[in-house]
Specification:
Blueprint (H helix, E strand, L loop, with lengths): L14 H11 L10 E2 L5 H11 L11 E6 L4 H14 L4 H10 L5 E7 L10 H21 L3 E5 L7 H7 L5 E11 L24
Antiparallel strand pairs: 1-5, 2-3, 3-5, 4-5
Helix pairs in contact: 2-5, 3-4
Length: 207
Amino acid sequence: MTMQAVPPGPDPLPASAGQDLLHLLGQRFSTGPKYLAAPGPTMEAWMRAARVAERAPDHGALRPFRFVIVGDDQRLALSELFAQGALERGQPPDDVERARARAFNGPGLAALVARICPDVPDVPVHEQWMCVGAGLMNFLNALHVMGFAAKSLSGLSVSDEAIKAAFCDSDESLACWIVAGRPREPAHPRQREPVAPLLETWRPTKA
């Protein structure tokens, strides 16, 4: 039997660099729009983040997500969609204006679009959504490593039919928005009581 050579994997990081990267990733926290300053990511930075997002676990190689960047010159058009959606939902004028203003949140703005296929053999819907979430996390981590702070946002706009039509094909859905920019101050985690242990060792139930 002929043994096939195993192709070399990626070069490992030096131990010190690996520890530095782990420490850096451990300092990533969501940062809202009012704590973000210009400049936002360049198209090159967005693309680097998207390439890292592609490394998400992807059973079946479906890549059930993509990112759509909203440029500065496109914010006004998006604001009109946000305002129109609020009007159609019967929201009062103040809420309509707040909805309009949300299109200008953050120096950088992207949409995460998901494409979930319910009839793929061996790749159930929940696995595809796990891939979308992992892609989002990789995207956010990559932005963080490049010096940007970011946050994913949802709200009523992601289910608005006109906004979905502007960003999605008929078999896609709008998962969330991503705002990004330079952090105005170091981010900190919210203080919260732990709901359950983060890491446990499995013990079989005795008969």
